[in-house]
């Protein structure tokens, strides 16, 4: 008899109101719900349910149908993308725009070569990156790769197993090059009394006492080496902030503080060079010009190697020599075989 009963206005609820106000299984047994054409996809269908369970089942079926249609659309889109074979690229989360091929220096494999000059790139083709050279062949190759319009200097660079932040691992010394440096060195001398006359006779380019100190404080730097007598050092100490960063501060280890002014001037004029380890543990020192004969460059170079080995700091541990390179001022570096370098002995004719 329930099918012949029509719900009274007091019991008639629209589907949204029935869903929001009634709990599942809690509707009154005599409630009959009619779905109007506004709320039901089937206008002629009239449903009666005692507890709304049938309506909830219809809602669940509707959600499943919508989800199935959405999944089918996604599958169709994926199939369409897979069927594309014309090489087109579809933009998405992983889309990467095509890049233009690099040209010129930008196409070079090594980043450091992209800022090099054409001359340098052409010159370095004659060296082998993977080969360690002995001293004579390295000197010969260095001279071949010096192609600038001026006469380049020959430089040596040694990487040592030193950490200069420790006092017992600092290295600073000087060495007399038998064949000279090929450079004209301007020497200044700070002395008093008779030593000033001695400096003038020995060929000092600049000499003086208090007046020279004042000129340096004002910014005068027209010299390459500054030699001081021991009695002038208390006054020279005031120039530390000016001379220190430039590497010109007189130092007994470098031979620039000496009571024998004449000998000190002659040594630097003839080719005495000073070297020290930098904060990365590398020593940089020049040993002549590329227009020197091979024998002269080899003799100067080996003298520096012996000096660096002789002045090894007491705090140095493990392998002292880590690597060694030579190069011209504007040329690429050439790696040396460290073992062969230390054992090399020039022929008697050199």
TrEMBL record:
Chain ranges passing through the membrane: none
Gene3D superfamilies: 3.30.190.20, 3.40.50.790
UniProt name for this protein: Ribosomal protein
PANTHER family assigned: 54S RIBOSOMAL PROTEIN L1, MITOCHONDRIAL, LARGE RIBOSOMAL SUBUNIT PROTEIN UL1M
GO BP terms in the entry: translation
InterPro entries for the chain: Ribosom_uL1_bac-type (IPR005878), Ribosomal_uL1-like (IPR023674), Ribosomal_uL1/biogenesis (IPR028364), Ribosomal_uL1_3-a/b-sand (IPR016095), Ribosomal_uL1_CS (IPR023673)
An annotated Gene Ontology molecular function: rRNA binding
Disordered: region residues: 1-20, 70-110
Composition skew (Acidic residues), residue ranges: 73-85
Family: Belongs to the universal ribosomal protein uL1 family.
